Amino acid sequence: MALIRRQFLSRAALATSALGAPVLAHAQTARFNWKMTSAYGKGSPFYMDGPGSATDLAKRIREMSDGRLNIQVFGAGELIPAFEGFDAVRAGTVEMNHANSYFWTGKTFAAQYFTAVPFGLNFQGMNGWLYDGGGQELWNEVYAPFGMVAMPCGNTGVQMTGWFKKEIKSVADFKGLKMRIPGLAGKVYANLGVDVKVLPGGEIFPALERGVIDAAEFVGPFQDRRLGLQKAAKFYYTTGWHESSTVSELLINKAAWDKLPKDLQAIVSNAAAACNVISEGWCQKANSEAMEDLVKNQGVTARPLPDDVIKALKAETEKVLAEAVKDPLTKKVHDSYFAFKTKYDRWSEISEEAYHLKVRG
């Protein structure tokens, strides 16, 4: 009787194994062809071309998956307009979008915190919050009602305040100024009398050159020089108060994500994390070279904003955030972000700041 029982169990195990094997084999051989759109034009350095860009991300995923996940990348305007990625991913028209979450604050204000917060975390601090401080989980919680998940896949580091046709001497100089500026900073400027415009990257130079706008913020020296902004304005303010660390977002349709085998999900997550670090490293080299060229060879005046202007911007930022946190979900994200920042700032004072002030020389 015992022998018969052992034979039965053995055959049952073999049968179960045989049934499971095709499922496992299918999961490991199934191929997926996805589409990814971008808020930035085809060929744009950092965003669409080069180390850590959308095309680099797609290439890494294709190679790491041995072609099992192939992502076709579309620049702004090729498949959809620049700022329609959120709706396209939500509807399942495309599986992915590569942009910045602060473009979606009209959908959910909390999205702002996952790109940049004025007077907020730097690159190291932002990664600390996202990867190990609860930020990533909150990001997905914010997008859950829309049927999407997201993750960081790039970072510019500190951005520049922007280009101005006239010198900024006081807060009064903002009154009536027409400026291209997205995100929370746009709300802050608006409260100080700025006529805020949100334009895709490709539209900034002609608008600045023709006087449609008087000032513009884009990214940093390399990207700004490529657009030719130095030819339309000569005052380049460097404070970077509004975006001390600007995260690129990989936005993914949740239903499509759930259909990926676990190993392909891991490949996407790890490729995105690699691009997050690699892109920021590229920015450091590219910006240092471009800034030197702008100042030495192209007649650009680069300087920080006056102290009283920075003080006014910070005070207005606090008012904007106080209004925003009336929304419970935004408050939850806000409280997490700034609780982490408080701890990080104390550490940064005796690590990064001490290095810059005492060691670097």
Low-pLDDT stretches are none
For the largest sheet, list the strands in their spatial order.
7-6-8-5-9-11
Shape: globular
Structural class: alpha/beta
Short description:
With 361 residues, this protein is of the alpha/beta class. It has 13 helices and 11 strands.
Question: How would the blueprint of this fold be written?
Answer:
Layout: H1 2-29, E1 32-38, H2 54-64, E2 69-74, H3 85-91, E3 96-99, H4 123-132, H5 135-143, E4 148-155, E5 162-164, E6 178-180, H6 183-191, E7 195-197, H7 201-210, E8 215-216, H8 221-227, E9 235-237, E10 247-253, H9 254-259, H10 262-297, E11 301-303, H11 307-324, H12 328-349, H13 352-359
Parallel strand pairs: 1-2, 1-3, 6-7, 6-8, 9-11
Antiparallel strand pairs: 3-10, 4-10, 5-8, 5-9
Describe this protein with a few key phrases.
single chain; six-stranded mixed β-sheet; alpha/beta; five-stranded mixed β-sheet; 361 residues; 50% helix
Characterization of the model:
- With about 350 residues, the chain is of the alpha/beta class.
- The protein is about 50% helix and about 15% strand.
- It is built from 13 helices and eleven strands.
- The protein has helices at about 1-30, 55-65, 85-90, 125-130, 135-145, 185-190, 200-210, 220-225, 255-260, 260-295, 305-325, 330-350, 350-360, and strands spanning about 30-40, 70-75, 95-100, 150-155, 160-165, 180, 195, 215, 235, 245-255, 300-305.
- Helix 2 links the parallel strand 1 (about 30-40) and strand 2.
- Helix 5 (about 135-145) packs antiparallel against helix 12.
- The mean pLDDT is about 90.
